[in-house]
């Protein structure tokens, strides 16, 4: 098998660990808080999680842990969409387990949670894990989106765990997968089984975070990869001075990715879904806003720019949200009728009769190409696949029309030419940044300590992330603490609360403070490709979001600090071409 | 102005120069070959370039150059599409000029060749150039696509050069821009002017190369950036195991970019336009080929893959080439008739009456969305804008239909779900790789030596590029040597011959040797992001294309060499996270 020079090189990287995790295992003591509460619906959740509700928060600190070296059999699952660093979670877990007891075993379930249901797994050994250290992707064991929900699936999972004599299962996943982990922990206890369940917070979307989880892994690398590309495009736009680039960014529910990329690259416009929802902005208002910026820049003879668009935007625009909901409801009951229609024209007429007047009108405003995307490729539940809607093209089309009418009215005198982009798959499997490599390895190692210390229904938690890695803290958070009840597919279900962009939070405020400047005055920043070697400020910085949220001093004057450091350390010399 | 940590860091990078260019300037001697000939149409070109035809090839070597320190006034132009390293060409030129004589001046024409025509320029000084060293983009002075062709444009250029008392003009551009440079050199001599003209070979497309030009600058960085993204997507495909990714890559005429990326990333399919043309493959045959690979992989339960598509593909498919030519001819004479049609249906009917039967049928096979792209957004000459045609979506649509019929016939049993991507603007303005940073700086410095040594009508030439930079050779090639006569817009014109992918060349042969394996057996390679610091094999490797063409030993066993080096040097240690 041929591997790249960088991959070979990354094998050599030794991820940094919090100091406590580098200590002798028997000295990793456990400190427990008082009982915890869920973020909402405490009474209902207490009933649903009779065994695991209310557990304390756990922090590792210098102390005693006499049982930590016991022999273990652990299974690990990669669940849901890829995020850079997944392999390092497994590596940290593996190294922890083997350090605890060389006779302990780690098994990887193949293809996601279905591997547990079907009992499909492999044992992870040195040779295998060494080929995946510090690399991107989930290809070591594959991933999948199956949920362990039905009684049959739960019974099958219990059966596999029993057969394999598993002491624990680690589920690496996002909010849904960790909700699943919490349920599984509870089911195992109900079945009088000793198999523990530990979750690990994964998602490039960045929406699995709260008071105890500072960030989900993968967000750092993915946003840096997208920012590399956005910066390159900004530089191109500013060189050619003739195109507007509309860039859609992955991130279905929350706009964290778009916001972080905006803070890194300072584009002319970045739409934030949460703001659109808060202000109940219609597509027309969004279009008007974009056009006002384009017109203002045209006044300065700058007929170019860059616009960031979060993937989930259409779901936050009131009239589109309603349209999508009506389409989903309609297809749930009348799919057969709809599927019998053979032309788009027939579909359009049928919809005009079956949708509400408002939604019918909203649908009519869509360009045909986009309208078709609302109808095609529905998911297995018949739902509109929002990720397949080319929102970036929709906006281009609306903006183009509006600018033409503005030109006629004399309120716009520029030239408008555009390109559209969508970045998502480009960043989910990048080689993890040093930050994600370190963070993930620490999360995996922490999961081992939680297991060896007897915890279940916990999420691996590594905190204080804006400080150097050795100052990070490690421990566990009860999964139930992050849960509330939400309406899903027609019934109330326990779920981990998603963290949307907080419109009162520091990252959004920092964006808001600069937005009007960036709109008109070209202020692009070009982050470049992720670097793995070199001075700290080049290869070991966390995201702007994290620095702002944690109030790190470096966020306050990142530029000054970076410059000072680089000068003080003579850092550039290391990277120079001198031989 | 806020700048990124990497940008700050790259300012410190000292580009490597060929040994001869590091010597004292007065010792850079000139060796000249015998008279040269153009690659074709010698008699016609001899007449057209009475002053500059047949000049010798120039090589710098240890010797004497007494006049090199004279005071100079030089103008520089960035022409055409962006390519990583343009700023370093200017930096190398600037540093050379100032080293020669601190009183010499460098002027940058703004917005491309139109800056020369309009006399729009700025003086480049230390502070300005220092803000652009080792960065991507052409934003230091902007670029443009204006050609200096008409008598008025030539007169205006002569006028500017006289007014500014320019000793020389450096044109950084692709084949067209350098054809322009050759003509300008000739015009200046005809006008009894002493202003010299030197070209610099730029284009990410890689199609400006020949016996004396090993590669154009920017190709290295752009292909590495695209390969980073392709590798990430391959890893994603191999993790999720459910999508086929159709990736179109910039490169209008030649498929060098697609081929280089294929050699770097080993995708399942890479279409090569030159092969499609050679074999006169129809869209149907291309579709059948893709479907055969998809079906073969489905047999192995691998319902995923990655397909690379060169941007210019449709122009190499015989029936599409004819269709495009007919559309261009038709629009040239009947644009008014066509533009009066208001619906696509009306346009379709009108075309059915005005195109040949074959082209009419070819047009009818196109999905409506794609068909519209053949008609919209025509360029100022009324030509179809091939770069706007979403070939990747066209192929997805054709493949999807074909697979459905294969499924009915029982010859395909897989699942097909796809995503489309287009990478172009993402790579044209990346921070130049160390290779491009060094190469461009050397090209700029070489341009200075050519100017100071009195040459005109030359292309800056730095060779022996697969060896370490200090072993590179430098000199100049007469632009006329690379020219022949070609039909352009209805008349024969002198042009620099474009280098398409050579189907007998080593890079294509290397691809061919592996193609059948890569189709069925997942053999992905993940190059990762461009690295600027670290061991040689990670951050100082030239392209596979260059290594194969030059027969470098490292190309023959790149893997073994890389591994050996990394072990021998303990290279990984530098990049490790130890502090």
Topology summary:
2 copies of one chain form a homodimer.
Chain A: H1 5-11, H2 19-22, E1 28-32, H3 42-48, E2 58-62, E3 73-78, H4 86-100, E4 105-109, H5 114-118, E5 121-124, H6 126-130, H7 151-163, E6 168-173, H8 175-190, E7 196-201, H9 219-240, E8 244-249, H10 256-265, E9 269-270, H11 273-278, H12 283-299, E10 305-310, H13 313-316, H14 318-339, H15 344-354, H16 357-364, H17 368-375, H18 391-409, E11 418-423, H19 434-452, E12 458-463, E13 473-478, E14 483-488, E15 491-496, H20 506-520, H21 536-539, H22 544-549, H23 553-556, H24 558-569, H25 572-575
**What multimeric state do the chains show?**
homodimer
- Alpha-beta classification of chain A: alpha/beta
The total beta strand count of chain A reads 15
Helix content percent band of chain A: 40-55%
Strand count, sense and closure of the main sheet of chain A? 9 strands, mixed
β-strand percent of chain A reads 5-15%
- Give the radius of gyration of chain A: 25 Å
Broad shape of chain A? globular
Mean of residue pLDDT values of chain A: 93
Number of helices of chain A: 25
Regions with little confidence, pLDDT below 50 for 5+ residues of chain A: 554-579
Q: What strand line-up does the widest sheet of chain A have?
A: 1-2-13-12-7-6-3-4-5
**Most extensive interface between two protein chains, with residue counts:** A-B, 86 and 86 residues
Give the CA-CA distance, first to last residue of chain A: 32 Å
């Amino acid at each position: 098998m041929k591997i790249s020079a960088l991959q070979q090189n990354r094998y050599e990287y030794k991820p940094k660990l919090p100091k406590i995790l580098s200590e002798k295992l028997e000295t990793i003591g456990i400190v427990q808080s008082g009982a915890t509460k869920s973020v909402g619906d405490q009474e209902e959740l207490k009933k649903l999680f009779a065994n695991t509700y209310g557990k304390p928060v756990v922090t590792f600190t210098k102390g005693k842990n006499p049982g930590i070296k016991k022999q273990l059999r652990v299974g690990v699952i990669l669940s849901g969409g890829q995020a850079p660093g997944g392999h390092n979670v497994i590596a940290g877990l593996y190294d922890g387990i083997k350090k605890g007891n060389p006779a302990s075993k780690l098994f990887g379930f193949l293809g996601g949670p279905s591997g547990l249901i079907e009992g499909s797994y492999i044992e992870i050994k040195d040779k295998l894990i060494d080929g995946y250290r510090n690399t991107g992707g989930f290809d070591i064991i594959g991933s999948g989106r199956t949920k362990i929900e039905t009684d049959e699936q739960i019974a099958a999972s219990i059966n596999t765990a029993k057969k394999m004599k598993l002491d624990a299962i680690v589920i690496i996943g996002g909010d849904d997968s960790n909700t699943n982990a919490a349920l599984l922990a509870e089911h195992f206890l109900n079945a009088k089984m000793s198999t523990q369940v530990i979750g690990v917070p994964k998602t490039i979307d960045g929406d699995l975070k709260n008071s105890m989880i500072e960030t989900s892994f993968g967000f750092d690398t993915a946003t840096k990869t997208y920012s590399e590309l956005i910066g390159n495009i900004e530089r191109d736009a500013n060189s050619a001075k003739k195109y507007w680039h509309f860039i859609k960014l992955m991130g279905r529910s929350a706009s964290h990715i778009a916001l972080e990329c905006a803070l890194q690259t300072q584009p002319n416009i970045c739409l934030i879904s949460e703001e659109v929802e808060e202000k109940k902005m219609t597509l027309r208002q969004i279009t008007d806003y974009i056009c006002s910026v384009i017109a203002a820049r045209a006044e300065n003879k700058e007929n170019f720019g860059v616009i960031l668009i979060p993937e989930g935007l259409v779901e936050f625009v009131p009239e589109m949200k309603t349209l999508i909901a009506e389409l989903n409801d309609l297809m749930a009951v009348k799919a057969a009728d709809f599927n019998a229609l053979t032309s788009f024209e027939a579909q359009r007429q049928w919809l005009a009769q079956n949708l509400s007047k408002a939604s019918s009108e909203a649908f009519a405003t869509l360009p045909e190409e986009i309208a078709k995307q609302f109808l095609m490729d529905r998911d297995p539940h018949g739902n509109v696949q929002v990720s397949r809607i080319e929102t970036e093209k929709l906006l281009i089309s609306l903006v183009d029309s509006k600018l033409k009418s503005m030109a006629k009215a004399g309120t716009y005198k520029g030239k408008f030419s555009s390109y559209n982009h969508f970045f998502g798959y480009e960043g989910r499997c990048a080689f993890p940044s040093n930050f994600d490599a370190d963070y993930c390895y620490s999360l995996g190692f922490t999961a081992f300590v939680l297991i060896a210390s007897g915890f279940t229904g916990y999420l691996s938690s590594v905190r204080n992330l804006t400080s150097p890695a050795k100052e990070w803290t490690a421990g566990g958070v009860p999964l139930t603490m992050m849960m509330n009840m939400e309406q899903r597919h027609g019934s109330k279900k326990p779920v981990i609360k998603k963290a949307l962009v907080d419109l009162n939070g520091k990252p959004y405020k920092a964006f808001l403070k600069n937005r009007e400047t960036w709109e008109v005055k070209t202020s692009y920043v070009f982050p470049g490709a992720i670097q793995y070697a070199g001075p700290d400020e080049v290869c070991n910085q966390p995201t702007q979001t994290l620095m702002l949220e944690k109030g790190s001093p470096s966020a306050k004057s990142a530029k000054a600090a970076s410059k000072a450091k680089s000068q003080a350390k003579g850092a550039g010399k290391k990277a120079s071409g001198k031989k």
